[in-house]
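Limitations

Structures in this collection are predictions, not experimental determinations, and the ligand pose is part of the prediction. Treat each record accordingly. The example that follows, with adenosine monophosphate as the small molecule, is included so readers can see exactly what is and is not provided: the inputs are given verbatim, and the output is the predicted complex.
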Amino acid sequence: MALSRIDQTAVAGKRVFIRADFNVPQEDDGRISDDRRIRLTLPTIESVLKRGGSVILASHLGRPEGKGHEAAFSMAPIAARLRELSPQLAGLRLVGTRCTDAEAADAARALKAGEVLLLENLRFEKGEKKGDAALAAQLETIADVYCNDAFGASHRTDASMHALPLAFRAAGKPTVTGLLLDREIRFLQGVLETPERPFVAIIGGAKVSDKLAALRNLIGRVDSILVGGAMAYTFLKAQGVAVGRSRVQDDMLAQALEILQRAAGSRTRLELPTDHVCAAELKEGVATGIAVGPIAADMMGLDIGPATAAHYAQVVAAARTIIWNGPLGAFEWKPFDAGTSSVAAAVIRATKSGATSVAGGGDTAAAVEACGHAAGFSHISTGGGASLEMLEGKSFECLEAIDRHIEPSYS
Ligand code: AMP
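Predicted complex:
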């Protein structure tokens, strides 16, 4: 049974409530610094409009406290960007000061085919974070179809993600996924369920503790795990290797050893960096050196070294499926982006030769983009926390509230 999708659903003359993830990074002056989440929602919106439906868009933005309208968290910059991005959205209106106010409800009920409304920040309502059924019941009355296209929020059970589709279902109305959410699930779940082998996971980032559950789920499933980033130093210290002043989670040494033992008893080869780009401090332009093996007491490892990068690139070159979560070094400071950049280049070469490559959102997407390699991946997720939870093998409650249909069988 597959999740029902918006383009398989009749929408002519219907008002479709699209729960999007427009929670984009903004500069201090409100300027949007990365509009990928907005752009990637356009196909879902356009699919409804071109088939004679109307659209009510809703999202959260930032972290208002659920105490009503706050200008700093208004969806106004999102409305402006949507109007710029698509001629079909030139007439989009941001209505009301709350998604629950009468102005919003009246505008939603008066919508005509081809029209689009944007509601104000869902998190202006205190019931949103609490998964409140009363808030859901109120929003359910303004639309005919519920469409979840908010992958970045799909590991959460906020009212608009879970109680709301349940309310639509209780009212006998369709609940479906959008095209972006569908793509995210197909890539992230698909590679885990039916990978072409060799299957390689690249896992980096700051903390072992953040990646423990993902590592446990991947051991036994993937052929290789290539570890980088600061988390590698917790593993190396656990093995008794000198790591100098590198960032280590001392309270995770036992868990790190347990992961190494688990991998050793499985089909998965877990690899740690064998050389490191080191410096006395983390800042741009600092003097660096390469440490092979142990790191001197006054130095810290800030990136995988050239030999490790070359070896990881070789493993990646032979892979048919590659997943990546977490940068391999402190990529925000040059030259500590070099390891991430050269392995990303190898992923792109592998992808060109037919491998499937999937990168998690958040820091991973930022790191790959900073290296100028984003376009060559098969898929870069729009969800940081959500993509990591998918790698952990968690099931998402909000998806249980989406209708299913039987996929045609060709056997
Ligand atoms: P995460 O949020 O766990 O994916 O971690 C990403 C952060 O880890 C980035 O801000 C990187 O700068 C940082 N990072 C990666 N490798 C290192 C390292 N070797 N030393 C210090 N910070 C690192």
